[in-house]
Design goal:
Shape: globular
Number of helices: 15
Oligomer: single chain
Distance between the termini: 104 Å
């Protein structure tokens, strides 16, 4: 020791201090990287898996009563019976039904299955102008949006995600109060979520016309996503259970059927797989062809409890299984049906004249839309025979999602808005067919739409 001190003199304390600093620096750096890794991988380290739920009623207006009734009903099932904590559920509804001046039961929305109020106790996170397709995709992806509760789907690689969407639809679109969600944008979002490991498995239940077209040609079976839809790619879904007092339908046939089935097997939700529920509900739904897409191997054989909760073991079954396809009507025809029923029951002369004018406008517009679309298709094809052939074809897939988006956005903005003219959905398939054909450019179809709509409106 004395030799070392003699050789290095006063420099020894400095060397000790230097070595100590190096050790501390290495330790801090190592600790920093460990903390960073733990933060990035905290969801993978945890063995706990959560169920995240996104509920959407994508319409507004009194005659669309059933959409919010379906979602309110499901919210109660998931929270009060199935045991999913409300903090894991994001609820999007326009919220204009319960306190509408049309509602003879202010503050209530009636459940078609039990005739009871399902509005009270609903925690609605996004309402009014915040119910948009852009916000929906951000919320699903875990991205914060302006307005609302600020709650988003914060799922990770161990979590299960359940999405229930209820509204109008069309070829390659799902409706919102303003605007549409296009299959091109949905597919892009789902692919990003898959690559970013935002879920372990995802299950979609979609109640809308042409809802199969959102998944049939775009949803890969290798993305751990399964989609169960109320209709296939080429048909309407149906409204059910007419309430004579309120002149509205209380639910949608397919949605009532699958929720009815879920209640019938409760609390044994582990006893029925996604595939089994699909087969049962497909047989119950007689007006449209319930369909299923995506992963038909793993998720298809998972119990529905993995996505809808488990519920208390001591609970008793709430209902017996019945078919809900009664008083049914195609969804695009509900608005005119509502106006006609209201006219038939009114004894107010001024209201009757107003209703007659509204009915005449929409009946005339429905005829004009068919002529307009015929003119657009002919302007693109230049052939009467091709025009007739395209009008007769059914949409089985969306081959060009970007063209479909551009063309339908143009039609809805330049010609007729979908949410105020819901019946036009029955006729716009010819535009999708043009996109599916290799002969015609997107710009060519868009130009024909703008030119013909401007001519017809001038």
């Amino acid at each position: 020791s004395s030799g070392i001190n003699a050789e290095y003199g006063d420099s020894l304390p400095k060397m000790k201090a230097f070595i100590l600093c190096i050790v501390c620096l290495v330790g801090v750096t190592y600790s920093f990287y460990i903390d960073e890794w733990l933060t990035e991988n905290k969801e993978e380290i945890s063995s706990e898996a959560n169920i995240w739920v996104l509920l959407v009623a994508g319409s507004n207006g009194w005659y669309n009563y059933r959409h919010q009734a379906d979602i309110c009903h499901l919210y109660h099932l998931l929270t009060k019976k199935h045991g999913i904590p409300p903090q894991y559920i994001v609820n999007m509804q326009y919220n204009d039904i319960a306190y509408s001046h049309h509602n003879p039961h202010p503050g209530q929305i009636i459940n078609a299955l039990h005739g009871k109020d399902v509005y009270q106790g609903n925690m609605i996170d996004y309402m009014g102008d915040t119910v948009t397709p852009q916000n929906f995709l951000k919320i699903l992806s875990g991205i914060q949006v302006h307005g609302g509760s600020g709650k988003v789907i914060e799922s990770g690689p161990n979590d299960y995600v359940f999405v229930n969407f209820v509204d109008h639809g069309g070829p390659g679109i799902l409706g919102f109060p303003e605007g549409e969600l296009h299959v091109a944008d949905l597919t892009r979002t789902l692919e990003q979520m898959y690559h970013n490991r935002r879920y372990k498995q995802m299950l979609w239940y979609v109640e809308a016309c042409y809802s199969g077209s959102m998944f049939a040609s775009s949803l890969s079976p290798d993305m751990n996503i399964t989609a169960h839809t109320a209709s296939n790619t080429e048909e309407s879904s149906y409204a059910c259970v007419l309430d004579e007092e309120m002149h509205v339908y209380l639910g949608d046939c397919w949605s009532l059927n699958w929720m009815n089935n879920t209640e019938a097997i409760f609390p044994e939700l582990e006893s029925e797989t996604v595939g089994q529920q699909y087969e049962i509900v497909k047989k119950m739904t007689t007006k449209s062809h319930a369909s299923i897409y995506g992963d038909l191997d793993i998720i298809y054989n998972e119990p529905i409890s993995m996505f809808m909760g488990h519920g208390p073991k001591a609970a008793t079954p709430a209902t017996t299984l019945t078919n809900m396809d009664k008083d049914s009507i195609p969804s695009p025809d509900v608005m005119l049906d509502y106006l006609r029923r209201k006219l038939a029951r009114t004894d107010n002369g001024e209201e009757a004249r107003s209703l007659e004018l509204q009915i005449l406008y929409h009946e005339t517009t429905e005829e004009k839309v068919q002529v307009l679309l015929n003119d657009i298709v002919f302007a693109v094809t230049g052939s009467v025979d091709k025009t007739q052939l395209i009008k007769q074809e059914s949409v089985t897939r969306i081959d060009d999602p970007e063209c479909n988006k551009a063309v339908l956005e143009t039609f809805f903005s330049a010609c007729y808005k979908r949410h105020t003219h819901p019946y036009i959905i029955k006729y716009i398939t010819s535009l999708t067919m043009l996109c599916n054909m290799d002969n015609y450019r997107t710009e060519q179809i868009v130009e024909a739409i703008v030119r013909n709509c401007h001519y017809n409106s001038s």
